[in-house]
Design brief:
Blueprint: E1 8-14, H1 18-29, E2 34-38, H2 64-77, E3 81-84, E4 87-91, E5 97-101, E6 104-113, E7 117-119, H3 127-130, E8 135-136, H4 139-142, E9 150-154, H5 158-168, E10 173-177, H6 187-195, E11 199-202, E12 205-211, E13 218-223, E14 229-233, E15 236-239, E16 243-245, E17 275-277, H7 289-309
Parallel strand pairs: 1-2, 1-6, 2-3, 6-17, 8-15, 9-10, 9-15, 10-11
Antiparallel strand pairs: 4-5, 5-6, 7-16, 12-13, 13-14
Helix pairs in contact: 1-2, 1-7, 5-6
């Protein structure tokens, strides 16, 4: 298990996004010994966002990578330890919470689960094979590779509208495919998308198939009203149909709602004493960076109260 298992932290944080690092920051400032376990890079999904305009305190906005780095640096200034590693298993039932990783087992008196969420897939044949070969889930990451080309965006929410607008500045043509007849995105985003000159829409439609063997060459589009299918040539397909919570490690240990989220209240307290759920993994109405940060602060305070009583 390694030396990491010999050390008992006051708090182990699973996930280094806004929720996880805010929990770590608040806990460390309260004098707790904290480690953050993050499998990719500081910032979580926020780090994959090209530009963030709706996080308070940044009047000109901030890019996601910089925000993630700032979150880590601020927490580490107060003594938080960061370990970049994937968590493979959790043991939560006892007073000693344990997280198994490639870097050993990390143990804590409390554990904040802030693993976030991942992009949902279409579930089509060939989707995994073509991922990185024309199929993408992050316009901010991959849009630059399709400058001057034709891109398709699937979805109708804020993410899809934002991706479509971002791509319209790079691509020759952008086509949004949505299963409804209007966008679900907030009014400002929807209006901006609909006004973009090189952006068009396929309403009441879904992507029913992917074309291309070694690289995406187009998509098959199904009209949900008529059932008719047509083929649409494109260089890229950006899937923006929402997120799925990263809660697989908790199955069998914590109760999850029908969508896989953790039904914890604003306090972030879960049914297991000493375990707290923060950020996008928690059942709630709004999942934004600012609400994730709020969850992190609540989780740290709830953890303090738990430790005081134990």
């Amino acid at each position: 298990m390694g030396d990491s298992a010999m050390h008992l932290y006051d708090m182990v944080v699973v996930g280094g996004g806004p929720a996880g690092y805010t929990a770590a920051l608040y806990a460390a400032r309260a004098g707790l010994d904290v480690v953050v376990l993050e499998r990719m890079a500081p910032g979580g999904q926020a780090a994959l966002t090209a530009w963030i305009d709706n996080y308070p305190g940044f009047p000109e906005g901030i890019d996601g990578v910089t925000l993630g780095q700032n979150l880590r640096a601020q927490a580490e200034r107060f003594g938080v330890k960061t370990v970049l590693t994937a968590v493979k298993a959790l043991r939560l039932a006892g007073e000693r919470k344990e997280a198994d990783t490639d870097e050993g087992t990390f143990s804590g008196r409390t554990l904040v689960f802030a693993a976030g969420a991942r992009h949902r897939e279409l579930g089509l044949p060939g989707e995994k094979t073509l991922t990185g070969r024309g199929v993408s889930y992050c316009a901010a990451c991959d849009g630059q590779f399709f400058r001057g080309k034709t891109a398709v965006v699937v979805g109708g929410g804020n993410s899809a509208a934002g991706d479509a607008l971002s791509l319209s500045k790079l691509c020759r043509k952008v086509i949004v495919i949505h299963r409804r007849d209007t966008l679900r995105a907030e009014k400002r985003l929807a209006e901006s998308a609909e006004k973009a000159e090189n952006l068009s829409f396929c309403w009441n439609s879904t992507v029913s198939g992917l074309l291309g063997d070694d690289r995406l060459t187009g998509v098959r589009v199904k009209n949900l009203l008529t059932g008719a299918e047509t083929e649409l040539a494109c260089d890229a397909l950006f899937v923006s149909i929402g997120m799925a919570p990263e809660t697989e490690l908790l199955r069998g240990q914590l109760h999850l709602d029908k969508d896989g989220y953790i039904p914890a209240e604003e306090s972030t307290v879960t049914e297991i004493p000493g375990v707290f759920a923060a950020g996008d993994v928690r059942t709630k109405a709004l999942r934004q960076i600012v609400t994730a940060a709020a969850d992190g602060a609540s989780a740290a305070r709830s953890a303090e109260k738990y430790l005081e009583s134990h």
